[in-house]
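Anyone? Bumping this.
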Amino acid sequence: NAGVMQNPRHLVRRRGQEARLRCSPMKGHSHVYWYRQLPEEGLKFMVYLQKENIIDESGMPKERFSAEFPKEGPSILRIQQVVRGDSAAYFCASSEYRNEKLFFGSGTQLSVL
Amino acid sequence: SQQGEEDPQALSIQEGENATMNCSYKTSINNLQWYRQNSGRGLVHLILIRSNEREKHSGRLRVTLDTSKKSSSLLITASRAADTASYFCATVGGSNYKLTFGKGTLLTVNP
């Protein structure tokens, strides 16, 4: 089992561009979570999805941010019209059971110039 | 807010000593989990303790949970330099679907 795979590892975007972050959960995991982390801080919850359904998106800004977890393929976190304040590490995690024993990917470091 | 808060923010000890970190939270929980994060890496799950459990062990780790005080502690015995990392507690409770993390304790184990 390859673990949670996130790509790209590093993503550089200019202000106004779109950022697409991908996450392939562990085999057999139907629960996917996205978190954001700034330096020296903890993780901030963004969104929780369970196969094709958004369960809780209360941590994700209503504008510019969207997430999906299609039946086939990876989960995608999409940020439109990026701004400098979007620069952060974005971590994806997956689990077999809801909110228990999350396995994390290595993260995508987004830098907005 | 459900979010747990770890204490202390930073802890520096010598190899072989024990390290204790605490976590306090605000509302009732279903379970409490501890994770470790090495610099620049993703978090690694260490241990989960349910609300009806008081203590749990895993190798050199010992976790306690006091629901009356809304607090948990993580004890790492006989620490090693490789234990140097940030440690986070995470909680979820009631009808809340969010697993929320504290700001973490940065543990430094000096060889």
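Late reply, but here is one note on the structure posted above: Chain B has a mean pLDDT of 92.
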